[in-house]
Design a protein that fits this description.
Distance between the termini: 66 Å
Largest sheet: 11 strands, antiparallel
Number of helices: 8
Strand order of the largest sheet: 1-2-6-7-8-5-10-13-12-11-9
Strand content: 25-35%
Number of strands: 13
CATH superfamily: Hotdog Thioesterase
Structural class: alpha+beta
Mean pLDDT: 90
Radius of gyration: 19 Å
Low-confidence stretches: 34-51
Order of helices and strands: EEEEHHHEEEEHEHHHEEEEH
CATH topology: Thiol Ester Dehydrase, Chain A
Amino acid sequence: MTTAFDTEIAESNGVLTGPWRKPQQMLHAQTYDSHASIHDDATAQKLGFQGGTIEGPTHFSQFAPLCERIWGKAWFETGCLSAHYRNPVFEGEEVQASIELPKPGARICTIGMTRKDGTEILRGTASVGDVAETALSQRLKELKPLTDPVILHDIKVGMKTSRQEVKMDPDQHMGDLYPFSLAGKLKVITEPSPYYSGRDNPWGRPIVPFEMLSVLFQYRAREDRLPVRGPAVGLFADQEIRLLRGPVFVGESYTTEREVVFLSGSRRTESMWVKTTVFGGDGAVVATMLLNLASIKQSYAPYEKEYASLYS
């Protein structure tokens, strides 16, 4: 059987480090609510960014070889990445992933990613199995609830969406949110693996890469019609993907259900924390995803007017 990755990994002082990589931007053409996204250069520049940002979960691929080195097959079956995105990455920039080796008997450890100039891109935890305390579970305990929502004024914690069937075939175009296919992604993915496109792996079927789990789980999210006011530009601020009964297979149908679990805010954003639960064909939970969808206040044209009418 082939090995999962041939990525060069360095070890020093209890830390595994991967190579410097230049992730590629694949969301230039992304649209939602009939407008361009933060990944479009012109839209991003209007909001003060130097250009279109690379989607956060793209970076998850660089952690896969490090986690597989530590946990082997278990990583693909019950792995979890829990990350707070600290700064954006732009096309052409090099980033490096690192992971602290777990303490004896532990199933969780710290992860981080930096740019070559030392800028922190993300921080969080990686784990396998039934680990209750992750980076984001801790972060949620520390955040204060949103008290003066405008964009999220009509959203309530506990709102649930109807279940939707999702699937990812190799050449399937993944829609307006993700205007590319798995086959297209595999041509540019930072850490290629024969496990992703071939059958020579422990499960005998191609599996979905960790970064593409986000794409699959969000595939039909725009059909939820949660009452978020807009149009407004959003971004991923925090994300946790947890496999419970993995891996997730290419070409297999799954069912997703979303629930709003928390609302928070900052000076620039209003955040809706959504938990997606993914069910297999037998109804058992296969995976979950916690996603902080942050809407940029500046991008919602009537924000100041509506704020005044709601809270004056």
